[in-house]
Design a protein that fits this description.
The protein is an all-alpha fold. The chain has one domain. The chain has helices at about 5-10, 15-20, 30-40, 45-55, 60-85, 90-110, 110-115, 120-140, 150-180, 185-225. It is globular. The protein starts with a helix and ends with a helix.
Length: about 220
């Protein structure tokens, strides 16, 4: 069983994968494509958000449209973060990723219509959250001193691996959802499922905010000392 800390961190880098990254000294597209694919299929914060995105999308054209917007968003910030040196606090980014799950699940149950009287544009939302999820990917790679030699091809390969992993994971999600939708209980259980997504998102966000606060406290103590 995964330790709670690893479970809630959602997409940390394992010691084995860290060793692979630290051993790179030049172009290594195969390694980075593998790591990108693995990162996506094991990054359940990304997967939970995707479940929310496609939960009520019945037409494949709609699935492609929304997932493409998400993909464009996270590709931009992944590459900008690593290649352009754009940085953000990893805890805060991951907390927002957790809240993105809450947002999408709340939208799925009609929460915005009930609370605000309208629903914010879901395509704009999925693009914005794609940008944030991309920063989540970038912050993990920024923890390593990746060599400049081959960095562009390595990051493009990592991003390609992420997309491959996303297609694999999304295919499994859609198969499961299609099977579930064929059952009379789907509509009745869909509210509970999205409520669970919200709970999961809150837990992930809370854990990351706790990490941010603890990190700040340590920094303050170090400065005071």
């Amino acid at each position: 069983m995964l330790p709670l800390q690893q479970l809630l961190s959602a997409h940390g880098v394992s010691s084995r994968d860290a060793a692979l990254l630290l051993g790179v000294d030049g172009p290594a597209p195969g390694i980075f494509m593998y790591l990108g694919a693995k990162h996506m299929v094991t990054g359940y914060d990304h997967l939970l958000y995707l479940v929310g995105v496609v939960f009520f999308l019945y037409r494949i054209t709609d699935v492609v449209r929304y997932v493409s917007l998400f993909t464009v968003g996270h590709s931009i910030t992944l590459l900008a973060g690593v290649l352009g040196g754009v940085r953000a606090d990893a805890h805060l980014v991951d907390a927002i990723i957790g809240l993105s799950i809450v947002y999408k699940a709340f939208e799925n149950v009609g929460g915005f219509e009930k609370a605000l009287g309208f629903r914010p544009n879901p395509q704009v939302a999925v693009t914005i959250f794609g940008l944030i999820h991309g920063f989540g990917l970038a912050t993990k790679l920024q923890e390593f001193a990746l060599p400049a030699n081959g960095l562009v091809i390595n990051m493009v390969s990592f991003n390609a691996g992420v997309e491959i992993g996303q297609v694999v994971a999304l295919s499994a999600i859609l198969v499961a959802l299609t099977s579930w939708r064929s059952r009379p209980s789907f509509r009745r259980q869909s509210f509970a499922a999205n409520a669970l997504l919200m709970v999961g998102g809150v837990l992930l966000a809370g854990y990351q905010l706790g990490g941010y606060a603890a990190e700040g406290a340590v920094t303050t103590m170090a400065m005071a000392g």
